[in-house]
Structure formats: C-alpha cells, structure tokens
Amino acid sequence: MKSVSLNGKIFEELLSGDEIQVIVKSLATKINKDYAGLNPIVVAVLDGAFMFAADLVRHFNFEHQFRFVKLSSYKGMESSGEITHLLDLDINISDRNILIVEDIVDTGVTLHHYQRKLSAQAPKNIEICSLLMKPNSLQHKDLAVKYCGQDIADEFVIGYGLDWDYQGRHLPAIYQLRKD
Ligand code: 5GP
After folding, report:
1. Among residues 96, 74, 95, which one has the least CA distance to residue 86?
2. What is the pLDDT of residues 4-38, one digit of tens each?
3. For helices 50-57 and 17-35, what crossing angle results, to 10°?
4. Which residues contact 122 (CB under 8 A, 6 or more apart)?
5. Has 106 been annotated as catalytic?
6. Of 34, 55, 88, 106, which one is the catalytic site residue?
C-alpha cells in the first residue's frame, strides 16, 4: 500500500494517478456528448479543482468559456458550513448553460449555496461535475451531481488538488487519511 506522510499524519493511496485519468476521460466523454453545440460556461471551483479541471478540459471538444471561482468552506479537516466567496464570476450568465466543476462534494453545503446564488442570475441550466463524492455525508439530498467520477467513504482525502493545510495538492494520486 503506497502512503504519504503530511504534518505527522499518514495517508494511504485510494486512487492512483492512472485510475484518476480513466475516471476523468470517462466523465469528459459524457460531457462532450451532452454539451456539443451548447457553448456552456465551465466554472471550476478553486482551490481544490484546479488539477481536475485542467485535465478534464483537455478532453473537451465543444465550444465553451472557462472561468474560475474561489469558494471556501473547509476549516482543517471539516466543513465549516459557512461559505466565503473569495473570487466571484464576472460574466453575464443569464440564459447560459453552466457546468460547475468541483473536486469533491462532501456535505453538499458549498455547492447547494453556490447553485442558489447562480440561479438568481437566471441561467438556462446548471449542472455539476465532481470528481469525488461522499454520499454518506451529503446533507443536501436534493443536490444533483449529474457527472460524478467516484463515490468514496466519509474519510478525509488529499492529493490531485486536494490539500491538508495547503499541503499535498501536487500529488498525482489521491490518498485517504489512515485511521489509527
Ligand atoms: P462541502 O460543502 O460539500 O461539505 O465541501 C466541499 C469542499 O470541501 C470541497 O470543495 C473541498 O474543498 C472540501 N473538502 C471536502 N471533503 C474534503 C476532503 O476529504 N479533503 C479535502 N482536502 N477537502 C475536502
């Protein structure tokens, strides 16, 4: 079992870099089919989705606009429930198709909040693509994640954009906190 140590905690490999790339390609294949001719605005959520979004859009073969937003809800290893907008969308989204690209949906509080905020600007449609999802932690059961790469257990993960205390984002694989 491959593992990494960050700040004295041990994390064990959950998904290898190759496994992640297979998931990313399969998500992109579905999205390519669904968004042909729709010219959506692809909105990637910083910080965690930067690596996933960069790999995902490399497979896109439809016309689109790409923007980053920065939302923050996590404090340490837990969702705080309070959403901070650190970088907002500065583009008119009225009557446009929006595809939100996220690294992981945990409680769903962040995207539930963000989807409501975007809905107030009258887009044609909003869909969510998340690499990972923790279904057992989901508080907003009505949050529809149309494109989900993989469901995982309710454990803290790092790597492939996901950090712990700003460390571990660079890792090409995803690792789960080892229970001691
Ligand atoms: P939610 O609002 O769904 O509870 O949390 C969403 C955000 O929390 C994600 O975008 C991500 O930044 C962060 N997050 C959720 N679970 C994890 C995790 O296991 N590891 C890390 N590093 N961040 C997480």
Report:
1. 74
2. 999 889 999 999 999 999 999 999 999 999 999 99
3. 60
4. 93, 94, 95
5. yes
6. 106
Residue 76's domain spans which residues?
3-177
| Ligand 1 pocket, residue 68 CB under 6 Å | no
Residue 81 pLDDT greater than 70, yes or no? no
pTM: 0.94
CATH assignment of the domain containing 65: 3.40.50.2020
Provide the 3-class DSSP secondary structure of residue 137: helix
Number of domains forming the structure of the chain: 1
**Ligand 1 touching residue 44 (CB < 6 A):** no
Percent share of the chain, pLDDT over 90:
83
Name the residue with the closest Cα to ligand 1, atom 5.
106
- Ligand 1 center to residue 37 CA distance, Å? 32
Expressed in angstroms and rounded, the spacing between residue 44 Cα and the centre of ligand 1 is 14
